[in-house]
């Protein structure tokens, strides 16, 4: 038996003194209200209404039971209200600070259409980890070992001058001494790629091909890295999406295949984390600059 539904019919009929008006207030047909109240009477073991009159008059037993029924209906209403409010409470979500406001706004719209409310907290990798550790956010879009993430973003080298080859080999950046002096080209690593699975691999390539230590360095921001490249022959480690935004020419790296690999961490196995991974896959991919199709990221 639907105890809450039966009590709701009971309370509405008693307040209006009519089965017809009470059923209308409960937004159910009158026969349904009558059946629910009859089932409640059977469940409680006593008559709630005196049916010998035209009005729905409470019996002494009905008057005794009415306060309890009212409390149950009020608690049910409060629970439904709390549930609606909880669904509207934004979920604090740490995301890469390379995501543009425009892309995040589109992701927010897509999420709301699915009943998911997100409160974005942009931060670099270490910042996202700290936000999650300190419980300032519930979940984070974090970089994971290459090939293990839900989203994969290929990385290459971007420069102001268009390279003549289809790939840039790090070994071609060795220091060259000319009549005009020493030519030293560098690779700049932006904060988003200052993680072991990316930074350490490009550093190993640097050492293997004989570049000087200072020729591969981490910079404080993508803006600074872009400025270094636009004013010289330097390169920035970046995605194709970032290269297009900055007006730079992008090429893959000849010696190593690098990519950012992302997944949703935190959330304690919540449904929201799974829905972001699945229902919002394309929206997140657009924010990260990942390939548009899942199979392309495999």
> What is the rounded distance between the termini?
51 Å
Average predicted confidence as pLDDT: 90
Question: At CATH's second level, what is the architecture of the largest domain?
Answer: 3-Layer(aba) Sandwich
User: Helical region count?
Assistant: 12
The CATH topology of the largest domain is: D-Maltodextrin-Binding Protein, domain 2
Rounded Rg = 32 Å
CATH class of the largest domain: Alpha Beta
The biggest beta sheet is recorded as:
9 strands, mixed
SSE string: HHHEEHEHEHEEEEEHEHEHEEHHH
Domain module tally: 3
Q: What is the number of beta strands?
A: 13
Residue runs with pLDDT of under 50 for 5 or more positions = 294-298
Shape: rod-shaped
- Beta percentage is 15-25%
Structural class: alpha/beta
Instruction: Please estimate the helix content.
Output: 40-55%
Family: Belongs to the LysR transcriptional regulatory family.
Organism: Nocardiopsis mwathae
Protein name: DNA-binding transcriptional LysR family regulator
InterPro entries: LysR_HTH_N, WH-like_DNA-bd_sf, WH_DNA-bd_sf
Give an overview in words.
This protein is an alpha/beta fold. The chain has three domains: 3-87, Arc Repressor Mutant, subunit A (Orthogonal Bundle), CATH 1.10.10.10; 91-148 and 262-297, D-Maltodextrin-Binding Protein, domain 2, CATH 3.40.190; 151-259, D-Maltodextrin-Binding Protein, domain 2, CATH 3.40.190.290. It is 46% helix and 19% strand. The protein has helices spanning 3-16, 19-25, 30-44, 60-88, 101-113, 125-133, 196-209, 222-230, 240-246, 271-278, 281-288, 294-297, and strands spanning 49-50, 57-58, 91-96, 118-123, 139-143, 151-159, 176-178, 181-183, 187-189, 216-218, 235-238, 249-251, 258-266. Strands 3, 4, 5, 6, 9, 10, 11, 12 and 13 form a nine-stranded mixed sheet that branches. The protein has a two-stranded antiparallel sheet with strand order 1-2. Helix 1 (3-16) packs across helix 2, helix 1 (3-16) crosses helix 4 and helix 2 (19-25) crosses helix 3 (30-44). It is rod-shaped. Residues 1-59 form the HTH lysR-type domain.
